[in-house]
Design a protein that fits this description.
Elements lengths: L1 H28 L5 H27 L10
Helix pairs in contact: 1-2
């Protein structure tokens, strides 16, 4: 179940990043009429991607690894 949550967080993060890039591109080129709205949505998409990446990292940082020392 843990890997399914990681996959879903990864998919949501990638989709949020792509959406943020598209919105930022629209903001820079002036394609749409809501310039400020495009920038705010791009920032929100980037924040969502950062939260997903942080969640994936924090889920794996506490995992104990078995270290086998051979002599």
């Amino acid at each position: 179940m843990k890997s399914l949550v990681d996959v879903l967080l990864g998919i949501v993060g990638v989709v949020a990043l792509v959406y943020a890039i598209i919105r930022f591109y629209n903001f820079v080129t002036g394609v749409s009429t809501g310039f400020t709205r495009d920038l705010i949505i791009a920032i929100i998409g980037f924040v969502v991607m950062c939260v997903c990446a942080l969640a994936i990292f924090l889920r794996h940082s506490g995992a104990e690894e078995e270290i086998h020392i051979t002599q």
